[in-house]
Design a protein that fits this description.
single chain; alpha/beta; Rossmann fold; 12 strands; binds glutamic acid
């Protein structure tokens, strides 16, 4: 299973770093942020670029480019995933690091934001190649990551195994086991119950809350999901468990549609067996990007950034968009959606469940004391619901859409920490 690729983007998509800076500038203006703090938050704290010589299976060497961007440590150590994807660029990683800062602040967990990435195509690499690349990348980062400094996690193209190699490489370099250096580890190495499903589960908690706030119920509501990877597939399964009719799902190879609702268990089985949702017998194959413009109650973009743009926003027919991906909606598209009355639940709220359970995993790793899955899920629910209420209250009080409210809440929290700490020296 995989997620959709950047091919879904249309010409003229904005650069993600510019998009993140524009969001910050607009929030700074609304909340009256001091110029000093705005200037500081517009830049990352640190950018590390490394070149990763990797022995390939054919005996040759490839030199990959890897990044770790630490945006802020105002509220705690940096936190954020590692992405392996052919389109990874420094600007993308900078934007994703900044969004992690806001995400951790929205759900009020004690972290700053970071992101990492390697420009590579993990789908065409063997396990051995991935392991050698990951270990060399990690050893290049040994001085800048650590449980008290910066804690990587999985993102697109990485998984529990990659986290296990990172944890092992870091630990071997230190000379002792350091489980708290990464989250999203396998359970047997100190991972947390509930982590692998946490982003999808968190999305569902927030979507359900929004539906109820609008006097709707998941029972019989329709959903379309773009992307069938770690986040999209879990969201689809949990949505169907609470009564949604999931009518359309896409992945990198195509999309399927059934007006009466897809049989989600059968679809998951089909995707596991064939590697794609495409060709699912109990549905109609449709063009991949049509999933974004299908008539439904809730549209969940769960792929890459920049997929809802000024080129397709006008055609969106969903009542609610829940951004499970990071940065799927460009600022021009948001404007169009606002004008159409589409209720957009922003990424930094919708998909914060992964970072939240990563926080729980880090706490468990440091304490070497592990929680039950019920405890993880019920604490996740509390955090997500509280964050939803905080953002919703801000949006109602100030007449803002949910994205602007979430940004203002996050930036204010980070700015308050910055103001109290001061700027060193
Ligand atoms: N990569 C995920 C995200 O974008 C999780 C980050 C984490 O758990 O640190 O939210």
């Amino acid at each position: 299973m995989t997620v959709t690729s950047k091919d879904a983007q249309t010409e003229g998509t904005v650069n993600p770093r510019e998009m993140a800076l524009q969001q910050l500038a607009e929030s700074a203006e609304r909340i009256g942020l001091s110029e000093a703090i705005h200037k500081k938050l517009a830049k990352p704290k640190r950018i590390v670029i490394v070149y990763i010589p990797t022995l390939m299976d054919d005996g040759g060497f490839e030199v990959f480019t890897g990044y770790r961007v630490q945006h802020s440590m105002e509220r705690g150590p940096c936190k954020g995933g590692i992405r392996y994807h052919p389109d990874v660029t420094l600007d993308e990683v900078i934007a994703l690091a900044m969004w992690m800062t806001w995400k951790c602040a929205v759900v009020n967990i004690p972290y700053g934001g970071a992101k990492g990435g390697v420009t590579c195509d993990p789908q065409s690499m063997s396990q051995g190649e991935l392991e050698r690349m990951t270990r060399r990348f990690t050893s290049e980062l040994v001085e800048v990551i650590g449980p008290e400094k910066d804690i990587p996690a999985p993102d697109m193209g990485t998984n529990e195994q990659v986290m296990a190699w990172m944890m092992d490489t870091y630990s071997m370099n230190k000379g002792y086991v350091v489980p708290g250096v990464v989250t999203g580890k396998p359970l047997s190495l100190g991972g947390s119950r509930g982590r692998s499903e946490a982003t999808g589960r968190g999305c569902i908690f927030v979507i359900e809350k929004v539906l109820r706030a609008k006097g709707m119920s998941p029972e019989g509501a329709t959903m379309a999901v773009q992307g069938f990877g770690k986040v999209g597939s879990v969201t689809v399964r949990l949505a169907s468990e609470i009564g949604f009719d999931v009518i359309a799902v896409s992945d990198i190879w195509g999309a399927v549609y059934n007006r009466r609702g897809l049989d989600v268990d059968a679809l998951l089985k089909h995707a596991r067996e064939t590697g794609s949702v495409k060709g699912f017998p109990e549905a109609e194959d449709i063009a991949r990007d049509d999933v974004l413009t299908i008539k439904c109650d809730v549209l969940v973009p769960a792929a890459l950034e920049g997929t809802i743009t000024k080129h397709n926003a006008e055609q969106v027919q969903a009542r609610i968009i829940a951004e499970a991906a990071n940065g799927p909606t460009t600022p021009d598209a948001q404007q169009i959606l606002d004008d159409k009355g589409v209720f957009v639940i922003p990424d930094i709220l919708t998909n914060a469940g992964g970072a939240t359970v990563s926080y729980f995993e880090w706490v468990q790793s440091i304490q070497a004391y592990f929680w039950s899955e019920e405890e993880v899920n019920s604490n996740l629910r509390k955090v997500m619901i509280q964050a939803f209420h905080d953002v919703y209250a801000m949006s109602e009080a100030n007449g803002l859409n949910m994205r602007d409210a979430a940004m203002d809440l996050a930036v204010s929290r980070v700015a308050e920490a910055q103001r109290l700490r001061g700027i060193y020296p």
